[in-house]
Structure formats: C-alpha cells, structure tokens
Amino acid sequence: MNWSKGLWRGWLAAALLWGAVVAAFAAADLHGRHPFAGLYAYSDARDAFLPQHYTADEAVVEDGVRRGVVARTDFPDGTTLAAPPDLGEERVRAIAERFWAERWARRAEVLWPWALRAAVPPLLLLLSGAFALWIARGFRPTVAPEEMVVETAGAEDTPKAAFNTRSAGGLPPFIRSLGPDPKRRRVLGAGR
C-alpha cells in the first residue's frame, strides 16, 4: 500500500472540491452581477477613486446628472464613475482614462479575498499531511548496512541464449552451418 500516493490523490480531490465550493459561494455572493461592477466617485481632494459601498439607485445618479452636479462615465466592465462636473470636460475625460487604466488593481482587490479562501485551506491541509507523513516515517526501523542481505543471481535468473553456444565452439547456428564443425572433424579424423 502506497500511503503517499493515496494521500496525494485524496488531497487533490479535496482541493478541487473545496475550490468548487468557494466558487459557488463567490457566485452566490456576487448575485449574478459582474464581479467588478459598482459605482465609484472621484474625490478631488484626495485625487483618488472611492468605491461607493451603498447601493445607489440608478434614478439617484441620473437625477444628479440631470441637475448638473454629477458627471457620469460608464465603462464596459459594469463600473460607473461619478465625478464633479465643475472640473471641466477635458479633466473629467482624463480622470475617466486614469480610472480605466487602474481597473486591474480594483479587480485584484475584489478577487484577492476569494483567492485566499480558495488556496489557503488546501495548502494548509497539504502541509499538515506532509508533516504527518514525515513524522510517521521517522518511526520506521532503520536497517544497518551490515544487516542488509544482498541477493545473488541464481542459475535460474541468468538470461539464456537464443542458441546453444557450447556446441560448435560457441558459434551461433547460422555460422555453424557455413562450414564443417570443428568438433566433428576431430571425431571423424581421430580414426585416421
């Protein structure tokens, strides 16, 4: 029985199952919406994009745009950026371009907790299993070199030739057939 191979396969199955469970919880948490969707507001004082964690009603944002207090920019990944319109159209466009260029940092921020939840428990299980195997292997009896038995190859273990090398002076059969057998000559010539 190979404990290492069996435990490795068990860990791999458990890790895949755990990943599927975490993915299911992540999908349920996102409620079918784009994982990076959301409303962000530009703060001129901090020169930063602040996520708005409250769920702003679409009508509220549209009302701000209609009244002229919010400049709204929608992006393909489902994010919306709200900026003060008094910055000027060119400045709002530059802010929107910077916001779009920084999207990978925001995406990593959203996915990082889920990646940790998916990776850390299986890795801890792998390390604890490897540690337990290491401890268990320490209890195996050690064999001293002088106690080791070396098996010698017996006569039945030696490979057999495809032909009888003892006849015809150790020549293979196809060469034996090319000329007279030296043993036969001696036998036949002994009487002369």
List keywords for this structure.
192 residues; alpha+beta; four-stranded mixed β-sheet; elongated
Write the layout of secondary structure elements.
Blueprint: H1 3-30, E1 38-43, E2 48-51, H2 58-67, E3 71-74, E4 79-83, H3 89-101, H4 103-137, H5 173-176, H6 182-189
Parallel strand pairs: 1-4
Antiparallel strand pairs: 1-2, 3-4
What structural class do the secondary elements suggest? alpha+beta
Q: End-to-end span in angstroms?
A: 72 Å
* Weakly predicted, low-confidence segments: none
Major sheet summary line: 4 strands, mixed
Number of helices: 6
For this structure, the quaternary state is single chain
Shape: elongated
Taking all residues together, what is the mean pLDDT?
75
Helix content: 40-55%
- Cα-atom radius of gyration: 40 Å
Q: H/E element string?
A: HEEHEEHHHH
What is the spatial order of strands in the main beta sheet? 2-1-4-3
**How large a portion of the residues is in β-strands, by DSSP E?**
5-15%
- By DSSP, the count of extended strands is 4
Structure description:
The protein is α+β, with helices and mostly antiparallel strands. 51% of the residues lie in helices and 10% in strands. The chain is built from 6 helices and 4 strands. It has helices at 3-30, 58-67, 89-101, 103-137, 173-176, 182-189; strands at residues 38-43, 48-51, 71-74, 79-83. A hairpin with a 4-residue loop joins strand 3 (71-74) and strand 4 (79-83). Helix 1 runs antiparallel to helix 4. It is elongated and about 120 Å long. The relative contact order is 0.09.
